[in-house]
Every structure is written in C-alpha cells, then in structure tokens.
Design a protein that fits this description.
The complex is a heterodimer. Chain A is of the alpha/beta class. Chain A is built from 12 helices and 10 strands. Chain A has helices at about 20-25, 45-60, 80-85, 100-115, 135-140, 140-145, 155-165, 175-190, 205-215, 230-235, 240-260, 275-290, and strands at about 10-15, 30-35, 65-70, 90-100, 125-130, 150-155, 190-195, 220-225, 265, 270. In chain A, the strands form 2 sheets. Chain A has an 8-stranded parallel barrel, surrounded by 5 helices. In chain A, strands 9-10 form a two-stranded antiparallel sheet. In chain A, helix 2 (about 45-60) runs parallel beside helix 3, helix 9 (about 205-215) runs parallel beside helix 10 and helix 11 (about 240-260) packs across helix 12. The two termini of chain A are about 15 Å apart. Chain B is built from 15 helices and 28 strands. In chain B, helix 8 (about 250-265) packs across helix 9. The mean pLDDT of chain B is about 95. Classes of the chains: A alpha/beta, B alpha/beta.
Chain lengths: ~290, ~525
Amino acid sequence: MSLKQLRRTALYIPGNDPSMLLNSGIFGADSVVLDLEDAVSISEKDSARILVRNALNHVDFLGAEVVVRINSLSTPYGMDDLKDVVCPRLDAIRLPKCEHAQDVITVSEVLDQLETEKGLDRGKIKIMPLIESALGSYNAVEIACADSRISAINFGGEDYTADIAAQRTREGLELLDIRMKILLAARIAHIDALDTVFGNVNDEEGLLAETSLIKQLGFDGKSIIHPRQIKPVHKVFTPSEKEIVKARRIVQALEEAEKKKSGVVALDGRMIDAPVVAKARRVLAFAEAMGLA
Amino acid sequence: MLNEAGRVIPEFIEGIGPLKPFKGVFAGFPEGKMKSPLVPYVTRDTEKLLPSLRDAILATGLKDGMTISFHHHLRNGDFVVAMVLDLIAEMGYRDMTLAPTALFPIHKSIIKHIESGVVKAIQGSVNGPVGKLASHGGFDVPVLLRSHGGRARAIEAGDLSIDVAFIAAPSADRYGNLNGSDGQSACGSLGYCVADAMFADKVVAITDHLVQYPLFPISIPQNYVDYVVKIDQIGDPSGIVSGTLKVTRDPLRLLIAENAAKVIEASGFIEDGFSLQTGAGGISLAVADYIRETMKERNIRGSFGSGGITAFFVQMLQEGLFETLLDVQSFDMEAVRSLRENPNHVEMSASFYANPHNKGCAVNQLDAVILGATQVDTNFNVNVNTESDGVLLHGIGGHMDTAAGANLTIITTPLLRGRLPMVVDDVLTVTSPGETIDVVVTERGIAVNPLRAELEITLKKAGLPVINIHDLKNEAYRISGKPEDPEFTDKVIGVVEYRDGTVVDVIREVKTC
C-alpha cells in the first residue's frame, strides 16, 4: 500500500513574489499553493503567471505537493493560467469559486487536452475545488464527486461568510455548517477534506484551537498563510506515540483474530469492532506518512 | 607574499610599514614588553577640569601628525568625534592619524577633514560613507582594520601608539573618574576605550554630565585621565541606544535561527554552566530566543552571556538562565539600566573580552558564538568587511576574536541575499579564517567544517540537514548563477589585521568604470 499523501498544511505563496516562490519549499509544508488569484492584483496577473510558470520549471520544492490556485475560468485570466502552469512539476490545480460540478468538469476537460499536448500522463494533474459561497456549499457533494481528478476539497471562510452574511469570529461557529458539508462531501467522494485559513498569524493559541477542532471533526489538513503556522498545525496532526502504539495493537489484535478465524476481537478486555479498527488504521496511515510508524 | 589564509599580501605598505603575514590562528607569537605611556605628574593643586575643549587640546601638547583616538559607545548618536575634528582643523592641525574603535554614518563629516589633509590615515573600523571613500581611493594611507581584541592588543603592545585619547564620558567628576551608566547620554559599558585610557600618553574626558567627586561607580578611574571638559551635549540619545531590538519575524531567518539553535543543542553544550555570545541582529536574537526556551524547558543554568548586550540577554540574566553578563558594549536602554543596577551584569574591557596577547580573555571561555557574514567560502573563510561589490563597508567587531576563542563558532546567513549568493568559491576578503569556523547555517542546509568531522557525525545523528559546503555553494549558484567578481586595481586601500597583529588579508581599490 502506498503511503497516504499528507496534506496537513497547504501554504499559500503569493505568485507575484519571486523570493517567496524560490523559498516556498524550505519550510516543510506538505503542499505549497502558488497563488495567482486573490494574492495578485489585476495589474499583475500576467507577470505573476510568468513567475509561477518559471518557478514550476526551475524551483526545487523539496518534496512538497505543488498546487497552483488559478483564477476562476469565468475571469479573463483562468484559461491563460491553466495553459501556462500545466507542466510535469505541477501536482494539482486549486480551483476557486466552485459552485457546480460543471466548473470542475470544464477544467478537467481542459487538463485532458493540455496533458495530451504536453506529453503528460492523462489524469496526472489533480483538481482541488475551493468552495466559497452558499451555493457551492449546498452543492458540495455533487462537486466533490464530479471528476476522478479531484483529490481534495476545501473551502474559503472569508468569501463564504461574506456570502451568507455571517460574521467571521475567532471561534468560527459560523463555519460549522460548511465544515460539516465539506467533510461529508469529502468522505462520500473518498478524497481529503481541507480547512480554510486562520487569518491571525500572531495568534498561535487560536490556530492550535481551530486546528484541534477541525482534526476532531475529521479534516485532513488546513490551508495556511504563513510558514509560522506550519509547526502548530503539524503538531496537532501528528499522532502521539501513545496513540500510535494503541492503534498498532488494535490492528494487530484484529489480524491475529482473523488468523485464528475468531469472530470476536477483544483487546484489554474490550470489544474491537470495525469502526474502531478504521480509526486505528487512519492514525497509522498518518503516522506512516510522517515516518513515525 | 602568500599568507597561511592563502591570500596574497604585499610585504610593505607606505605609511604602514612591513606587513607580517598571517601564520595560523594561534601561531603569531608576541615578543618584547608592553607599551608604557608617559609618566604623569600632578600636584595637589592641579586642576584637571579645563574651561574648554580648546584648552584641553592645547594642554595635551597635541602636534601635527599625532595619533588621536575615540570610542564608539555613543554609536550613531556621537557628537564628540566631529566636534574634536572640527576644532583641531580650525586650530590648524594636519596629518593626524585617527584611531577610532569604530566609525558610524554620523561621522560622515570627517570626510572633509580627510580631503583637506587634517586627517591622513585611519586605524580602526570604518563603515558607511568613510568606507566607501576608502574603497574608491580616497586615502593615501590604507585603512588599518582591527578587531576589538586586536585593537586592544595593538595598543597594549605599542603597535598602535595613541598620543591623545578623547573619551566621550556620559558621566564624569572633575578629577577624571568616568562611567557610561548615568547622565543624559548614558551608553552603558565603556569597555572599548579602557586600553586607550590606560596606554595613551594623554587622555581627555569630554562629558555633558559632571557630578561631585567621587563619581560612583567608576568605569575608568582618575589615575588614567589627564583632563576633563564639560560641554552641553556629547551625543543624541536616540542614536546612542536603540529601542528594543526585535527578534526577526522573517520566516526564512527564523528557520536559520532554529537550525542554529538545534546545532548548539545537538552539540551537547546546553548544560549547566553553558556560555553564549550572539550579535544583536535579528537572526542572532532569534537563536537566543530558541536557546532560552530550551534552557527553560530543561531547567539549565548557564554561566555567562557576553559581548554586545541587549535586553534579550538581560532578560535571560533575570530569569536565572545566566549567572553573569560580561558587557563590552550595551546596545539598548534595558542593557544600560541593567548594567547600572544589577551587580551580576559586569562591564568588561576590550582586552578582557578578546585580546589574544594578555593573560586570558573571555572569548576563550565561550561555549558557543553565533556570528553573521557578508560572504562565506568553501574553505569556510568568512568575510564581514566587504560587500559583494567589493566596497569596504563594515568593521570586524569581535568576529575573528570570538570565532577563534569559542568552542563552537556558528555562522548564520541566508544562502542568498537578493540575488547574490552568500556562500561562494572564494570570499572577496578573509576576515575570519576558515579554521576558526565550525558550522555554517543557512535555510537550505547546515555545512560543517571538515576539520570538525566528529561534529558532522553528531549533527547528522541528530537528524539535522547537514550538507557539504560545496553542495551548498552549488545550490546557491544553481539558483542565482555564478556571481562575477568586482574588478579591483592593484592599490591596497585596507589592511585586515588578524587579532595577533599579522595580516590576514588586504582590500584593494574598486575599479570604477
């Protein structure tokens, strides 16, 4: 079995900042998201696109998953972005402002064509739809299941709360609904669920609390806007040694029971059933991907 | 001739004399006796407090061609250097040799005295505009650069013979007791000018805060000071001490700092009795911050922090992480306050700090030092004097002293600054020779000097990203391209003296097109 692709952190890098592009891989985020959308003003769309294209061809991202957030295809920039950034080094497109399955399908078709033109394996480049509106949230399941290229679904808290007329707070109660929708959609589609950014880079306590919450809810990771946020998020997502040992014992108990063809699995006097095993396997998958198990 | 650092240096320089080539870090053996100043004479009725600076200059017997010295504890707020030079120019003196501990941008006005011939030569650190002037051939005699320890050595050994030392004193009494702790221009430690006071033939203290005899505490005592002059203001407080220096927020620099802290920890130095020196730059403070956390977590009680002292080290002293601070220069208000109030915060002279030819200097007791660089090369030689364009812009400070003395010398530098690689094939100027540098920490890996093979194994075992220095340089060149060296003429404009008085490198004039 191949290792789980870790997506604990997806670090946004402004596409118009050469020095940040150059150094984006050195901080150890699981994914880097080279941003051509919100981080780049209209007047710099062309130059940022060229910078990101060149970065993709020349920068060593030191093992990070490389994602580009393009502009929506409904803008005059989205199609040009796609044409320029598709290359062997690109792992995925983060597609903003998704509201319908068709938004993803359109991009996937363009990718089919570009992959063929550029001699890349069909389906190599993944898509990560970004949900940022009430409508998108409502259609989350349909979007998540729209295409086989989709590897993760995420949402943007800022745009979403503006759309539903909610106030953005540190505690994030207003995001509870979209978080659940994103998570369910991800689980139905068997893809990763990624959380929105935590905006205050100086509030490490708040970041830790939010990350603990989303981990508890079942998310696989989180978008971040500053390298300083990597460590706290990774810390939350790193299983403790105790958790790893326990998970390993659960899985072993199951395997032994299967060998003995025993129908009932027990560990330390407690019944172990399928969901307990599934949770243990998830802990081990994370641990293995981090090189801990 | 070729010296042990692999640099070609001339055998003789007009105005400086024959040069002794660098022979190795501890290979420069001293000879003879220390310098003695004139035997002084005062009577019960001698009045040391003179009515004006002019009177004091006349009283010293200053003559054309003499060497006068200054300290830089007032940093970029100093009025004294300009004031004294303006006055001696007005009084008609010429061909003076200036021996400052360092010059700052505020001292730009001395350029006119260089151009008019009042100042003939500089022996001391130059930076900013004066360095630029030197690099473009503005001096007839090359600038002689010394480290803090090297300067104290040169004074004590008589290589730098000071005729008159002018000492800006934030606090003084009329009999010549001085300190830097009190007064409107308080600067904390007066460590850099102690040798000047002890070995110059004549010593003039210039103060704006005259107190009743006897001043207390005393940093420089009355038996070294010939004259005292009271003026309105010796400096601008806002330029003397900085505000609170901040730990860097730049993620790249934080990453470098974190790696440097991990190197120190993995090396096994962070135990009770640990001693540390860092600079006041953003990366250095961040390293100290990481180490502070580690020391707290592991309940470690260090012995001393030293060098230029900041609020950061003061805090570590107060938290019990260090027993003592040894302070040669106080960088901020908090350091000034602490030196005044905390008996465990101790002032030290440049000689006590770093002179290789006394009976023991503090740098030899250091476990670890964190230093910067403008360039490092694949032989681990460090340049802190010249910029990538070849212009002389910085002094040596205590770089070569602490690098030679400390058990573990770590250079922290981004691999690239702008589009310029900081790790190169060959530094433009060797300041601290490679054999004194143990580790170079960048954001793209940690290079260990092959002379410290056991350290390399230790760091690798600790899981640190150790990389060969050549690979590190290649990575820099891969990103930026190989930099083209600036072009120089044959004219030597600066001499980098090693701390033992030998010459480790010379700096040549930048060719202008």
